[in-house]
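Subject: sequence -> structure tokens, single chain

Hey, anyone have a minute? Need the predicted structure for the following. Not urgent.
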Amino acid sequence: MAELDEALAVPTGMDVAGVLRRVASALDAGHAVALATVIGRRGSTPSTPGQRLARTPDGCVGTVGGGAVEAAVLRALEDAWARAGRGEAVAVVETFRLGAGLGMCCGGSVDVLIEAMAAQWPVGVVGGGHVAVALVPVLVGLGFAVTVVDAREAYAAGDRFARAQVLWGEPGELAAVVPTRGAVLAMTHDHQRDQDAVEWALRAGYAYVGAVGSRAKAARTAARLEARGFSEADRARVRIPLGVMIGARSPAEIAVSIAAALVAWRAGEGG
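Reply:
Had a minute. Here:
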């Protein structure tokens, strides 16, 4: 069972609608969430079916009735939240017996649905050109949390990428919003910019690093990485050409191939 962070484990009182809004907001932002819902009770208990308690990055909100049963649920939530942060999505029903199990004189029992809602898999896209415009909505539709960065102000316009975060600047801007367990994909208008993005992502330790390009570009990129001291293991992690080899030519086809590769990676990493 995960250790409780006392600074975050004291629940903030909130009605059920507020708890659900907080959960939705956290998931939309790409964060892991754990949610406890009272679904049944027997005997005398402080809990009522329908009550909800959630663990988000900002702490706990709501209630499942208070007392020792709530303390037990908080520990279960913390464990579920840790699992969600590792990309696991889990739903289990736990029964808390207030007498023998929790030492409460009520003597009843409470059934609680504990849900670990996995964080969206984060993807940083470097370059806001034609391939990115085709790729981003596909990734968003597949449940990835996408951030696009481009050094060209016109290409970093938010209205080009609905439901994705857009940044104006260099690849390093992604560090604040894309955790290193995620992917960085380079698809700029310039080979040197792609090279710089790949090198930055490798140094930052991103789990998945790739760039749009040919096998010839892959060989040149690998040679430059070796000349700059990157290890053989790091060089082997770079995916160029990026995507599943399906003979893609158009931006829409390339988007499908890249999305397929990322789905396969997510499935492997998430178990």
